[in-house]
Design goal:
By secondary structure, the chain is of the alpha/beta class. It folds into two domains: 8-280, Alpha/Beta hydrolase fold, catalytic domain (Rossmann fold, 3-Layer(aba) Sandwich); 290-447, Alpha-Beta Plaits (2-Layer Sandwich). Helices cover 36% and strands 25% of the residues. It has helices at 42-45, 49-58, 85-98, 113-122, 151-164, 169-174, 182-195, 201-210, 237-246, 267-280, 303-310, 312-332, 352-365, 392-403, and strands spanning 8-13, 16-23, 31-35, 64-67, 104-109, 127-133, 223-229, 250-255, 290-300, 336-340, 344-349, 373-385, 388-390, 409-412, 425-434, 437-447. Helix 9 links the parallel strand 7 and strand 8 (250-255). Helix 2 (49-58) packs parallel to helix 10 (267-280) and helix 3 packs across helix 4 (113-122).
Length: 448
C-alpha cells in the first residue's frame, strides 16, 4: 500500500487481466471480497473520503479484497463475446485463487449481486456468506416477476444511460443525495466515463439488464444479508423482498432513502449494518454436498447400427477414440467427466456457457469418426454422491438429451438467462413433458 491506498494487482481469468486490491486486516479474520460497482472502479473509490473510510471499516476484522469485473475500470476489456454472468462469476474465482483465499464473504451492489449469487451456488465451499446491497435477481418485469421494470421503462433506462454517460443525469438518478456536491459529482462523472468503453456499453448493459438468476436461488446454502433502500428508483424494494422469500437463508434490512449507489445517501448507516453483520453474525460455511451445476449428457446416435456395421473390434477402437475426444473437450472447458454411459457420457460444469461450447465442440469433432451425437444440458442443483452426482437436475438433463435430434444441442429453459451476452444463440423447440419429471419444460436449441 502506498499512502494508505492499496496497490492494484492483476489476476488472470483465461487471458484477461482482472484488477484487484488487497487491504490487510487489522486482525486475523475471515476474508471479504467486494465486487466494485462498474460506475465506481477500485482505482477511484479511494478518492472519495466517505467511501474510503467505510472500506477501511470493512478491513478491521479481516482482509478486504476488491475487484473490478472484467471490462470495467482497470480490468481488461474483452473481445467478443461480450461479458456474461458466468464470466463475471469466473472473475471472483480468479481473484480468490490469486490471493490464496480459500473462501470469503462476497459483498456486491445492484446487478453485480447476480454473479455473486451464481458463484455462491456453483462454489458453496468458497463462500462464507453474502452481503447484497440494493440487489435483484433480474431487472425486467415478467408474469411471474412483477417486481421488475416494465419493458418501456427498461428500454428508456438503457437509452438514457447510453446517451448521458458522463454528463450528470446518471448521478442525479442513482446518487441524488450527493449529486449537488461538486467534488463528488466530478468524481462520479469520471467513474462513469471509466466504467467501460463507450462502444461496448450497449452490450454490457444487455448483460446487466437481461440476466436472470432466479433459477439458482434455491441452490444457495450460504447465509445472505440483504440491505435495500426502500425508495430506490432503479431497483425497487420488491426485488429484495423477492430474494428474501426465495433464498433459503436470507435476512432483509430495509433502510430509508432513495439512493442506489452505496457511496451516496446515509453511507455510514449502510456500512454500520454491513460491519455489524460481518463482525458478529456471519456463520461458517456449510459442507458442500449440494451445488448448482450444469449437467451435460452426450449420446452417440445409432450406436448399435454402427457397431453391427464395423464389427466389435473396430467399434471398441472407435469408442476409445470417442471417449478420449470427450475427455479432452470436457477438461479444456473446465468441466468434470462424471462417467461414461455405454455409448454416451455425463459431465458437469460450473458454468453453462462452457458446457454448451464443450457440447458443440464434441458434436463437431466426432464427425471425423463418422459419428453423430445428440446432447442435452440443464442447470440446476445436484447432489454430490462420492464421485457421482444425483438429483432432479440430472434427470432433467438426461430427458432433454433424449429429445435431441442427431447433431442437436438442446438446453432447458434454465440455461439461456444465465448466458446472456456470451454470443450463444437459442431457438425455441417448444414445451415438452419429460418422463418422470413433473410439469412441462421449455426446450431450446443452442447455436454457437
Amino acid at each position: 500500500m502506498s499512502g494508505g491506498v492499496p496497490d492494484t494487482h492483476y489476476a488472470l481469468n483465461g487471458d484477461l487481466n482482472i484488477a484487484y486490491q488487497v487491504i490487510p486486516g487489522e486482525v486475523e479474520g475471515p476474508a471479504r471480497l467486494l465486487l466494485s460497482d462498474p460506475r465506481f472502479c477500485i482505482d477511484l473509490m479511494w478518492d472519495d473520503p466517505l467511501f474510503a473510510r467505510n472500506l477501511r471499516r470493512l478491513s478491521t476484522a479481516g482482509r478486504l479484497i476488491t475487484l473490478d469485473p472484467h471490462g470495467c475500470g482497470s480490468s481488461d476489456q474483452p473481445s467478443e463475446p461480450f461479458p456474461s454472468l458466468q464470466i463475471w462469476m469466473d472473475d471472483i474465482g480468479a481473484v480468490l485463487d490469486a490471493t490464496a483465499t480459500d473462501s470469503a464473504t462476497l459483498i456486491a451492489l445492484g446487478e453485480m449481486s447476480r454473479p455473486a449469487l451464481l458463484f455462491a451456488a456453483a462454489h458453496p465451499e468458497r463462500v462464507d456468506a453474502l452481503v447484497l446491497i440494493n440487489a435483484s435477481p433480474r431487472s425486467r418485469r415478467a408474469d411471474d416477476y412483477p417486481a421488475g421494470m416494465p419493458d418501456a421503462r427498461m428500454d428508456a433506462e438503457r437509452e438514457l444511460y447510453i446517451s448521458s454517460l458522463g454528463q450528470g443525469q446518471i448521478t442525479d438518478w442513482l446518487a441524488p443525495s450527493r449529486a449537488s456536491d461538486p467534488v463528488f459529482r466530478r468524481l462520479s462523472l469520471k467513474g462513469e466515463r471509466l466504467s467501460t468503453r463507450r462502444g461496448n456499453l450497449r452490450a454490457y448493459l444487455d448483460a446487466f439488464l437481461e440476466g436472470d438468476v432466479r433459477s439458482v436461488l434455491s441452490s444457495i446454502s450460504a447465509e445472505v444479508l440483504l440491505i435495500h433502500r426502500v425508495g430506490n428508483p432503479h431497483l425497487r424494494i420488491d426485488h429484495a423482498r423477492y430474494l428474501r422469500d426465495h433464498l433459503p437463508r436470507a435476512r432483509l434490512i430495509e433502510l430509508p432513502g432513495n439512493d442506489h449507489l452505496w457511496h451516496s445517501g446515509d453511507v455510514d448507516g449502510l456500512f454500520d449494518e454491513v460491519v455489524g453483520y460481518l463482525s458478529g453474525s456471519a456463520p461458517a460455511r456449510r459442507t458442500a454436498d449440494r451445488m448448482l451445476a450444469t449437467v451435460l449428457f452426450t449420446d452417440i446416435v445409432d450406436s448399435t447400427a454402427h457397431a453391427a456395421r464395423v464389427g466389435d473390434s473396430a467399434w471398441r477402437n472407435t469408442l476409445e477414440t470417442y471417449y478420449g475426444l470427450v475427455t479432452r473437450h470436457v477438461a479444456s472447458s473446465s468441466g468434470r467427466l462424471v462417467k461414461s454411459t455405454g455409448d454416451g457420457s455425463l459431465a458437469v460444469f460450473d458454468g453453462p456457457a462452457r458446457a454448451i461450447r464443450c457440447a458443440c465442440g464434441i458434436r463437431d469433432d466426432v464427425q471425423e469418426l463418422g459419428l453423430s451425437i445428440r446432447a442435452g444440458l440443464h442447470t440446476g442443483e445436484i447432489e454430490l454422491i462420492g464421485d457421482d452426482i444425483g438429483g432432479i437436475a440430472v434427470h432433467v438433463g438426461a430427458r432433454v438429451s433424449a429429445l435431441a435430434r442427431p447433431g442437436q444441442v438442446l438446453v432447458s429453459a434454465s440455461v439461456p438467462p444465465l448466458v446472456i451476452g456470451s454470443g450463444i444463440d437459442f431457438e425455441a423447440q417448444g414445451s415438452h413433458e419429460l418422463k418422470g419429471v413433473p410439469g412441462e419444460w421449455a426446450v431450446f436449441e443452442a447455436r454457437v
